[in-house]
Specification:
Radius of gyration: 37 Å
Number of domains: 3
Strand content: 25-35%
Oligomer: single chain
Structural class: alpha+beta
CATH class of the largest domain: Alpha Beta
Shape: globular
CATH architecture of the largest domain: Alpha-Beta Complex
Number of helices: 10
């Protein structure tokens, strides 16, 4: 800065000297004054110049400092986020390791599903199925077959379709999801995280439900409400009290719908998918001596089971490349010459209502909150197959994993 001030002074003095020595007719009498006043003026101008230079330099230094501080702050924020993310990752992995208790872990390495058989051999009866990334405990391995236990299924699978050892442990850390295990026979879930909110649906203890968000915040709930809630949802709700109690609630993802439940009513655990039990009811129906609807229904279920594990795509109708719930049921029935409307609500309207006590293989189960928004195909033994959501794809669930609004019969 001093250098810039001295350079300015030198320029000013040069100009002043040039003015003093240039002849000016008619002003000889004031030569003495001209020798003093311009010098004083030059000194004053130089003072202002130096002040301006100093002010500009100070401003530039301030701006540089602010930019450096801002950059440093941004770096600090990024570092904090990275550290927080790393900490959360380690905590998640720690919880997963505590929750996944397998003597010898195996994970299904398939694109769709893996059959679990009663005995080691491809001709043996199928007693269960494992979709992609389903976990199991390997009891023993012999001649290319492994005896496994997963959920309520205990049987044999081809060893080549299992990931084991360190690779299985690493995969588990990636694919395990936080689940809510219901502690009561039936569970009321809400539109908003408070008991003052309306009941969204009723869930069953027979199923485990994916936790969409474990830690709720005031900002996240406000954002959610702005997108998904109506005035009806907030009627009679003390929002202040709700925001103060968010730590005691979680958001669940059921099919493609979001709902809230109190942590007091569920147990939260990281889990892998489990094998599902497959009974022979559908096969008995398919091989029935009846030439009527029961035989057709059994064939429909057998056909539907071929697509277990395939992807869910909202608005999709491809049974192999991606379909949503109504696209799935429409596609299955279309294969057998039956026409169903495109969306679940219209399918509900187009089918004949039957009671739960009269339910048959091939019937459609309709779900939703107040109105139909999801449909599934009944496969017997209290189970359904349905295109659930993008995370799970086409899967098997308990028929009463949530309260059905209607059971409909196509044939």
């Amino acid at each position: 800065m001093k250098r810039r001030c001295m350079e300015g002074a030198a320029i000013g003095l040069t100009l002043a000297a040039f003015c003093l020595f240039v002849p000016n007719p008619g002003q000889a009498a004031t030569a003495n004054l001209l020798e003093e006043k311009p010098l004083a003026g030059i000194t004053l101008s130089l003072d202002h110049y130096c002040e301006n230079v100093m002010e500009n330099a100070a401003e530039e230094a301030k701006q540089e400092a602010e930019e450096q501080e801002s950059g440093s702050s941004q770096d600090t924020d990024k570092e904090k986020k990275d550290k927080k993310s790393e900490k959360e990752k380690k905590e998640r992995e720690k919880k997963i390791k505590l929750n996944l208790k397998y003597d010898k872990l195996g994970i299904a390495k398939v694109d769709t599903y893996l059959n679990v058989r009663s005995k080691p051999g491809e001709s043996s009866k199928i007693i269960g199925k494992m979709t992609r990334n389903t976990g199991c405990n390997i009891l023993n391995t012999k001649k290319g077959w492994s005896k496994i236990e997963s959920g309520n299924v205990k049987g044999y699978v081809k060893t080549e379709y299992l990931i084991t050892g360190k690779e299985a442990e690493a995969r588990a850390l990636k694919v395990a999801t936080l689940r809510a295990v219901v502690n009561t026979q039936t569970l009321n879930v809400r539109y908003l995280p408070t008991t003052e909110s309306r009941i969204y649906d009723q869930l069953s203890e027979d199923e485990e439900y994916t936790v969409e968000r474990e830690h709720l915040s005031k900002d996240s709930i406000k954002t959610y409400m702005a997108k998904h809630s109506s005035k009806k949802d907030t009627n009679g709700v003390d929002l202040g009290a709700m925001y103060d109690d968010l730590e005691n609630w979680v958001m669940l993802s059921v099919d493609s719908e979001k709902m809230f439940v109190s942590k007091d009513l569920v147990t939260l655990k990281y889990k892998l998918n489990r094998a599902v039990t497959i009974k022979e009811e559908a096969h008995r129906a398919a091989s029935s001596s009846d030439s009527g609807s029961s035989s057709v229904a059994g064939s429909i279920v057998s056909y539907a089971m071929q697509f277990l594990g395939n992807p869910y795509v909202w608005g999709g109708t491809s049974l192999t490349n991606g379909t949503d719930c109504s696209g799935f049921t429409m596609g299955i029935y279309r294969h057998f010459g039956y026409s169903l409307p495109r969306v679940s609500a219209a399918q509900a309207a187009a089918t004949r209502t039957v009671s739960a006590s009269d339910v048959q293989v091939g019937d459609l189960f309709f779900y939703g909150s107040g109105r139909v928004s999801h449909v599934a195909l009944y496969i017997g033994n209290g189970q359904i197959i349905h295109a659930s959501n993008a995370r799970d794809g086409i899967k098997i669930s308990s028929a009463y994993y949530r309260k059905p609004l209607k059971i409909g019969r196509v044939m």
